[in-house]
Each structure stands twice: as C-alpha cells, then as structure tokens.
Amino acid sequence: MSIAREKKKPFLARTRSQKGFDWADIITYAYLILGTLIMLGPVLWLVTSSFKTPAELTNFPPRFLPYKQKTVTLPGTDKALPLFTVEIDGETKELAQLRRIGIEAQMIDPANPDAEPYRVNIADRQPIESISFSLDNYVEGVQSFNFLRYFANTVFVTVVATLITLLINSMAAFALSKYKFKGSNAIFLTMIATLMIPLSVILVPVFLVITSIGWNNSLWGVIVPAAATPTGVFLLRQYMLTIPDELIEAARIDGASEWRIFVQIILPLARPALAVLAIFSVMWRWNDFLWPLIVLTQSEVFTLQVGLNAFQGELNVQWHLILAMTVLTIIPVILVFGFLQRFITSGIATSGLK
Amino acid sequence: MASQQTQHHGPTNILELVLSWVGQVFIFLGDLLFLPLQRWFGVRSMAYVFVLPNLVIFGVFILFPMLLNFNYAMSGGGNLFPQERPFVGMANFAELFNCDNFFAPNTCSQDRFARASLNTIFYVLFQVAFMVLAAVVTAMALNYKIKFKAFFRGVFFFPVLLSPIVVALIWKWILQENGVLNAILLSFGLDKISFLTSAAWSKFWIVFISIWADMGFYTLILLAGLQAIPGELYEASKIEGAGRLATFRFITMPLLMPTLLVVLVLSLIRAVQVFDIVFAFTGGGPGTSTLYIVQYIYTNGFASPSRQYGLAAAASVVMGLVLIVLTFIQLGLGRRRS
Fold this sequence. Notes:
Chain A is an alpha+beta fold. Helix content of chain A is about 60%, strand content about 10%. In chain A, helix 2 packs across helix 15 (about 320-350), helix 4 (about 135-145) packs across helix 15 (about 320-350) and helix 5 runs antiparallel to helix 12 (about 270-285). Chain A starts with a helix and ends with a helix.
C-alpha cells in the first residue's frame, strides 16, 4: 500500500529512497560498530588473555593473541631450549639458547649441536614465537581453585532453587487465581506490597532467621529465603487468570483431584509463564552474590561467584588463573543464552523483569 | 498431555516417555499427600493447601524479617538475637543523621554513612541518566532498518547475563596499571593513568561498567516499546513530509514515553542498590570514594569486627523508604498510563 502511495507522489516529495546510504545509515552503522567494539572487546580480551602464559601476561604493552616461544629439545640437554633468531656476520640464524651469563647468551645451532656455542649479546636476539592457545591456566586453575566444588555447589543451588521456586510459586498462583477463599485478597496485596523490597533491605533479620535454623554455611540458607518470590507469584497468577475456569470445572466433574487438575491442566497451559520464570530464576541464582557472601563463609560451600571474588581478593593476584576461571564461569551462561536467546529476550520485553 | 501432541521418532519418544513417567509419579505422590486433605477439608479448602508452602517461606523469610528490621533499627549492641538487644528508640537513626553540615561528610559522626549516601546519590544520577540515554539511542539504532539485526541485538544484550563478579574482573583486568587501556593510551602518546587508585577515575569507571553491564536489559524493553508504535503513524508522517527530527519529536518521543518512564524507575530502583560490581571491582575504595549504601549496610552488619546490626538495620530502613517512594512513583505512572 505504501509503495503505491509513494509512486503517486511527485519526484521531489519522495523522501529517502530505498537505495543508497544516507547520513542516518552511516551514523547508525558507525554507532553499532563502535558499540560492538565496546561490548564484545572486553570479553574477547578476557578470553585471549586467559590462554597466555603468566610471563606473557606481565608483558607490557600486551599483545592481543597468546604467543608462546618455540623451544627445541636437543640430545644431551634435559630441558627444552628456547629458540631465537640471531644475526651473525650478516646472516640470520635460528639458535637455541643454552644459558645466559650476564648480558651474554651462549647459543647453539640445533642443526649442528656439537659445534662451539655462539656468544651473543642478549639485546641482539629475537625470540621466535608462535600463536599458541595453551590450556595450562585452565588445568592449574581447576586444580588450585577448587573450581569443580564451587561449580557443583552453584549448579545445586541453581537447579534446586529454581525447582522449588517454580513449584511453590505456581501452587500459590493457582490458589490465588482459581479459588475464591477468605484472605486471598489480603495475601495477594501483601505480596504485591513487598514486590519491590529486595533482600538487601532485610539482610540483618533474614540472617537471624538463617542462624536460628542453623543454616549458616549451608546451601539451603542460600536456596530457601529467596524461593517465595512475590514477582514469580504475580507473574504466574496474571497468566493463570487467562485460563478458562470451565476446563477446571469439567475436570472436577470427571472426578480429577485438585492436585491432578493443577499438574495436568494448569501447569501445561501456564508453560510460557513458567518458562520465563525458570529462565529468570536460573539467571538470578547463577549470578547471585550478596546473600551467598553473607551466608557462606567456609570455602567448601562457596558458590562460583563467592569463590571467584575470594580468589581475586587474595594477596598476590594470580591473574592467569583468575582469567581462566572467569572464562569457565561464563561458559554455561553463554550456552544457556545460545539456546534460549529468543525466550530470554521476549521474556524480558513482555514482563519487564530482571 | 504433551505426549499425545507430538509424534516424533526415536530418542524424542523415549524422552517423552520418561517425562510422562516422571509426571505420573509426581501426580501419584502429590495425590498421596493431598487427596486425604481434599477428602477431609473439601475441595474449596484446597486453596489454603496450595498457597501454604509459598506463604510459609514468604512469611518466615520476607514478611517477618521486614517487621523485625524495625526492631533491629531501634535496638543497640552487637548481639544478633533480639532478646539480648537493648531498646534504644531512634538513637540509631539519630546517629546516622548526626551531622553539622549534611554536605560535608567529615562533620558527621557516621561519616561513612554520609559519604556512602552522597556517593550513592551521585552514582544514581549519573548512571541512570547516561544509561537511559544510551539505551534509547541503542534501541533506536537497533530498530532502524539495519542488516545483522539479531547479531547486534545479541551483542548489546549479552553482558546482562554475565555475573557482576565476572563483569568486575573483566574490567579490572583491562584497567589495571599494565592493562590494555593504558597500553592504548601510551600508543596515542598519552601517559598511563592509575585508574583503580584514583578516587575520581574509580567513580567514573563504576558508572561506566555498570552501564556496560545493565544497558542491554533496558535497551530490550525500549526496543519492544519502539516496535509497539504502529507503523502507519510513521507512514503518515512521511506523507506529510515531516523530517526525521520532527518525526522523532512528535511521534517516537510521545509514544515511547510510557516505556521510558518504566525504564527510568526500574533503573533508579536498581541503581540505589548498587553493590556486587563495586565490591569486586574496588571494594569501596580507594578510601571511601566508591562506598555505597548497600556496602555500608553489609560492612556494619557482616564484615566489621564489632557487628553493628542496629546501624545496618537503620540504614536499610532508610534505603527501603527510598525504594518505596520510587515504587509508588512507578505505580502512579503505571496507573496514569492505563
């Protein structure tokens, strides 16, 4: 329709033809590409850095890709010898360094190891390097950082908390949307009133409750307090209100128990809302920091986030391990995002949750 | 139910079968627990049974602590258990606001609270203003007729999924003394800057990093708002011969306003509670230059040698009040919108 109108208009009134770049296009693309650099660049930098050797990491100025010096093992030497290019008498040679004495290096030609070693000023040699993505940092990190324990703790918290949240929130939402009972309005309004009060406002009293139960340094102390999210109940209730009551009535006449109605009719029909809540719950729990930081003080119960923070706070910062562990922490998130991007983005856009 | 709808082959069938078995077991166990209750109390009363688990956890871990928070705020001493805490009335609040001059933190008896409050106010103003601006611009760019739309949308959104600790570590690595940003500065002939030990720079980077991490979320909401504007309006303005600026001023802006207000309030509420990124990035330093309210609460309640639960609770009551005011503003705006 619009094309037809466009054609009728006189030539000069036809603004912005479909063809060609105009200034708005250029500005938009320039902005998006600059934005891509700022958004993606830091993460790419983290990833390439995580493959560098500790020595390479202290190099300044740093290089984008991880390099490793080539080495050669010769008969008669027990260590691998680093390779350099050296210019001797106008000829460029690849030599292995035997040892270094002061500013002089004794170097040997790998092709001719029995010859007299060359004596070279250390300023005159250039290391031979190749790009190498070494997994050493990852291996060492997993061993010294107890990554697997923290990972298992975090997976446990995320999975169990999400299951509990989905179950009790959907049960409550079912009651609040499909039954008329005394106090239902009071319950709903109280929950709405606390919708925007985050855990960070009531840290001290929740800590008291946790301590009284004996859940200090227990993963249950992290899982349970935030399980009854008013946000989740609200979201699910609004969705369940759209499920017709006739379905429930018909099932009751057929003799289904209330629990069976909930599991076999309500839950399948509320699947889109449940999926949104599940995705958010996983995100909240995986990234949660402040509350686990308070509840968990012994390192064997740390979650990944708390562990990572403790690790970077240690006196001599071992960046090569931190970088590798950070990348490992991101991988599950990237995987989830890759599979569920559509759900996540539409979920946020429609619910305004975070 | 699901198994009836799908007619797949091979492993999917097995998966469906397993799932339906799990479902049957789930129903059976539930009935074992709930059917006697239903027989005893009647169908109508099952509502209470369904709401109970959520209500118990909500009551014990949200509602009760909320009320108890006032008890803590009005009692003193370092004991955690309420029965061992002497009532002190409004003394904690008086202590927090005991200032000769409210704009000079060193005249306050709780100078850390005053600094944290001022820092938070400045942080909220700058972070929200620049983030909403950047989110609007990004959403408009993504809504424009561009190629690789899905790619760009993903690029701007993905930091939202990263944990605050990861975000802090990524940037700490970039901004450290021998980091890549200093290398870039040097290559342009500038001097190195100690970003992490300078009060002004660390404040700046906290704002920048939290915008980097959160912007995608608000961009997405704004993008949905932009896409909800009917295309006929733009066509009509095209026919009228309206320029780009006029179209933006008279169509995009007014119709995006409700979404923009929601974004504004949501981001305000979030900004007031800034903690995680800062804690891992600067730990509140250097000095108190990036100390914010939640960290003040955390330090007093959980990380100082002598626990001052009263001060922590009083400060959290103050923060809660601010959040409630912001929530009411949001509700008011929401009502006006509908």
